[in-house]
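Ex. 9. Protein: Aldo/keto reductase.
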Amino acid sequence: MTITQRTQRTQRTLGTSAPLSVSALGLGCMGMSEFYGTPDQAAGAATIHRALDLGVTFLDTADMYGPFTNERLVGEAIRDRRDAVQLATKFGNERLPDGTRLGINGRPDYVRSACDASLQRLGVDHIDLYYQHRVDPTVPIEETVGAMKELVEAGKVRFLGLSEASAANIRRAHAVHPITALQSEYSLFTRDLEDEILPTLRELGIGLVPYSPLGRGMLTGTITPTSIADGDSRSTPYFPRFQGENLDANLALVDRVRTIAEAKGCTPGQLAVAWVLAQGDDVVPIPGTKRVRYLEENVAALDVTVDVDDLAALEQAVPRDAVAGARYGDMSPIDA
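Predicted structure tokens for Aldo/keto reductase:
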């Protein structure tokens, strides 16, 4: 079976009370414009086009990526194929055009203006899935989601999502308007949400969209102590798992994953993505890349079967408490 044949028939549904059908694997577009090395708009556009050809139609961006340039890139790339795409974007991490960060903003007036600005940059008349990127602790989530609900009623947005929200705020938000999906970090290296958040999602009928399912590239097996270029945010203390002794310890875990992957005839990254996919049909990971060859490698993970024995082996290879370092140097923006 070819990759194209496999992905064309592989769909998953996010949410039950407000269901959205998407490709089983999505594409995170952030790195095309910022954070992970030098932006490459042309390569990013080519990767989006190839993704659509392969049946990866669930595209993820945000207004703060670039800032603002990633939405323009995605909008231009899908211009003649909008109807084939499930388009997700986010608001809430407020930035100026020069990149200055203003903080988290969940005020209703900002929700409305941010959506209008995203629609203009994307060049579309509606957003399929609109996320609150981070929960604003100064604004009751009922007020933020109330404004998001108005966007649905106005036809500007089809479905609503949250990102990195606590179980309590997920419940409060869902009571205002059905939440279709939660986007949060989830991978072999980050499993915090299994304790309380994932059971809450399943109780309420909300899908999970894991970002960084490859541990920000660590689980691809291509990271070394000298491979991260200057200008890549992973080289900074903002990502403690990539620093010093933490990196050494985590690369040792990746070697264990590599051993299991080699026995299965796949790459460590493919096995890591397949592990996330195996966590449930309500889980749709969005590995990010700006290169066609890495996209194709990720898509091939759909053909990797992870059975009970594989899950047990991976659990032993990467125990939850074995990963060294916090996922962010500053965890304060994460709702808890």
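Check your answer against this statement. The longest helix spans residues 244-264.
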